[in-house]
Design brief:
Blueprint lengths: L1 E2 L2 E7 L5 E7 L5 E6 L8 E7 L6 E7 L2 E2 L4 E2 L14 E2 L32 E3 L21 E4 L1 H5 L13 H4 L2 H10 L3 E4 L3 E3 L17 E7 L10 H17 L3 E6 L16 H9 L23 H17 L4 E4 L18 H8 L7 E4 L19 E3 L1 H12 L10 H8 L3 H4 L13 E4 L8 H4 L35 H20 L3 E5 L32 H23 L11 E6 L9 E7 L9 E6 L13 E7 L20 E8 L1
Parallel strand pairs: 11-12, 11-20, 12-15, 15-16, 16-17, 17-18, 18-19, 19-20
Antiparallel strand pairs: 1-2, 2-5, 3-4, 3-6, 6-10, 7-8, 9-10, 13-14, 21-22, 22-23, 23-25, 24-25
Helix pairs in contact: 6-7, 8-9, 8-12, 12-13
Length: about 675
């Protein structure tokens, strides 16, 4: 922190015997070194260097025991990146010098004494940033509609965005992007990781970590998505301008954040920052002093340690207070709640601190509620204010409409109904004292980690050969179906079936109780050609494929599907019965739960109050391949929405017209 004619430095390294601050010139040469004072009772080392100013390059060296069996891998020959760096300088390449041991030899005994400073990433003392524009939208909880999107992937092929802006933060705030978001009606962008991340070593040529789930700089936006990637100050300014513009148009910004692991990997990994400062405290270790792999990425940050909790809170505050974002989606969030004994604790100090923090207590918090550790599946177990990705909804909705079994078995009508109703047994009944609302469940069909929506109905199996892992990567049990032909088809019957099912799926998503989340690009039929793990595909496979304006048919089809989604979101917004704020606000009655597919499945909805606050609704589902007769309750009814594509079947003449195949109809009672 720059202040009082100099810069104050502080870093956590509880078991170090000495920590040096190393200064560098712009040419990369070391210009001086200072011993920091410490450690304090909290394990902090600190020092004030007069005369320094924003812009100064620096790194750290930590001295201490090389005792791998005890969890210590100190190696002062390795220049370390400040974990709290807000500006990171340099181009990282995987080199043997970044390892604390001799690469290729025993990582516990072959100490490596070469200096990596010439190739190490360095921090730059940041200039103070003014606070962001305070125009944050306040989206009512029940009206939130999430849109998960990759910053680069959204615009890289967008025909309405100038080529020089494509793939950048600025492109997300371009008028063409804003118009698309507003036309759809989504309220909240959930951005795939934008923290400073590294590629994995030994990726096949042409592949990179496109998704970015490999964070090294938890305070620093990645320059990959900037118009001026060589100017870190401009990167931050562009990011903040994007957020401000999105806010000005009523859109929230949520960041996907990865606080469960770092790129330092397991005991074979490099020494870049945290490992060299204090591996034993920063990471969870086994009895042999090696990192536990509860993240499935080699190591696991240790949220049983108060300094790891404090570091994460400081990072989150920075992104809310300085960078202006509205909330976070936490990758493998079960890691964050693991206590000293490794078990998950809903009362974990990290969760409590989030609620007590004056800056973070209003932030939107979304959990990916599992990790790869013991008893890691924690859906329904996060504290009351949290939202959770709800994979059971995904599996039930996809399995129902695609007639496919899920990892939990066949999808019965009762299972489908329970998920459509908001999963009360998960969010209301599991921890009754929390009084969690249906919005606690983030419902989705297709996200970055899996097939696109168009591919769900076009492929029966994954096609991940381009990832260089012989098609072994990606989920093998993801629900999908091709209805006869894998991949693109010109058969009118297959095309019609796929379109019907896609429309039924998004209608199910946007009519169900909960918080809906759309996958970016699904509204225009984006395809990854059957790749359900496109994490390394920074190319047209991973980018959204927008329709070519010169292709009138493709443009019309994409506009029609996007228009249907907009119609659904508008209906959800105007019908309170479709977005209950509590499980007891409405009464749902299902008809046909024990019947087979020769009978429609009916969901009756009306308000719990008498007289009812909104006219009753009826949603009729038909997942069969045949039209079915629809018997309506007594009274007058009007059709609010049909999932049937109008180009295939004209709108019904009467509310009780036969229900078209593979679709649904929403009706409202008239006085």
């Amino acid at each position: 922190m720059a202040r009082d004619g100099g810069v104050n430095f502080a870093v956590f390294a509880a078991h170090a015997s000495a920590v040096q601050l190393c200064l560098f010139g712009e040419d990369g040469r070391e210009t001086g070194a200072f011993q920091l004072h410490g450690p304090s009772a909290e394990g902090l080392w600190h020092g004030f260097v007069p005369g320094l100013a924003p812009g100064q390059l620096y790194g750290l060296r930590a001295h201490g025991p090389w005792a791998p069996a005890e969890g210590h891998r100190y190696n002062a020959h390795k220049l370390l990146l400040d974990p709290a760096a807000q500006v990171i300088v340099g181009g990282f390449a995987w080199r043997p010098e970044h390892h604390g041991y001799v690469l290729g030899q025993d990582p516990d005994t072959a100490f490596e004494a070469s200096d990596n400073a010439a190739w190490a990433l360095k921090a730059r003392v940041p200039a103070p940033l003014p606070p962001p524009a305070q125009r944050k939208p306040r989206i009512p909880v029940a009206e939130r509609v999430l849109y998960e999107v990759h910053v680069k992937g959204f615009s890289q092929q967008h025909p309405g965005i100038p080529p020089e802006l494509r793939g950048t933060y600025a492109a997300l705030a371009h008028p063409a992007a804003l118009a698309h978001f507003k036309q759809l009606g989504i309220t909240t962008l959930s951005l795939l990781p934008v923290h400073y991340a590294l590629n994995e070593p030994m990726l096949p040529p042409g592949l990179v970590n496109y998704w970015g789930y490999n964070t090294l700089g938890f305070f620093c936006p990645t320059p990959r998505y900037s118009r001026t990637p060589q100017d870190p100050a401009a990167v931050s300014a562009e990011f903040r301008a994007m957020v401000d513009t999105l806010h000005a148009h009523g859109l929230e910004v949520v960041l996907d954040v990865v606080y469960n692991h770092t790129p330092e990997g397991n005991h074979f990994g490099p020494t870049l920052s945290f490992r060299g400062l204090d591996q034993r405290c920063w990471y969870r270790l086994d009895d042999a002093g090696r990192p536990l792999n509860w993240s499935a990425c080699g190591n696991t940050l240790n949220f049983a340690h108060p300094q790891v909790v404090a570091f994460t809170l400081a990072s989150l505050r920075h992104w809310v207070q300085t960078m202006g974002v509205d909330g976070f989606r936490f990758d493998l969030a079960a890691v964050l709640g693991r206590g000293t004994d490794g078990s998950f604790d809903r009362e974990h100090p990290f969760f409590q601190a989030l609620d007590a923090d004056p800056i973070l207590k209003q932030a939107l918090l979304i959990a990916e509620p599992w990790d790869a550790g013991p008893q890691g599946y924690r859906v329904g177990d996060f504290p009351g204010r949290w939202l959770e990705w709800h994979d059971r909804f995904r599996d039930a909705a996809n399995g129902y409409w695609l007639h496919k079994p899920t990892p939990h078995g066949e999808v019965s009508r009762a299972e489908f109904a329970a998920r459509f109703d908001g999963s009360a047994e998960t969010y209301r009944d599991r921890h009754p004292a929390q009084q969690r609302a249906p919005q606690a469940g983030v419902n989705y069909l297709a996200v970055h980690d899996g097939y696109t929506l168009a591919d769900l109905v076009a492929y029966e199996r994954k096609h991940n050969h381009a990832n260089g892992e012989n098609n072994r990567d990606g989920r093998d049990n993801e629900v999908c179906a091709n209805f006869g032909v894998e991949g693109p088809s010109s058969d009118p019957a297959i095309v019609a079936t796929r379109l019907r099912v896609r429309r039924a799926l998004v209608a199910t998503l946007l009519l169900a109780a909960g918080t809906p989340m759309l996958g970016g690009g699904d509204e225009v039929g984006n395809t990854q050609h059957g790749n359900n793990n496109a994490w390394s595909q920074d190319n047209p496979t991973g980018w959204i494929t927008w329709p070519d304006p010169a292709d009138a048919q493709a443009s019309a089809e994409a506009a029609s599907f996007a228009g249907f989604i907009a119609e659904l979101i508008a209906l959800r917004r105007t019908q309170p019965l479709l977005r209950p704020g509590a499980f007891d606000e409405i009464v749902r009655r299902w008809e046909g739960l024990d019947a087979d597919d020769t009978t429609p499945l009916l969901c009756h909805l009306h308000g719990a109050d008498e007289p009812p606050g909104a006219a009753p609704l009826l949603i009729a589902f038909n997942r069969s391949a045949l039209a079915l007769p629809l018997l309506l309750p007594p009274g007058r009814w009007q059709v609010l929405l049909c999932s049937e594509p109008p180009e295939l079947t004209p709108p019904p003449d009467t509310p009780d017209a036969p229900l078209p195949p593979r679709g649904l109809r929403v009706l409202q009672s008239l006085p």
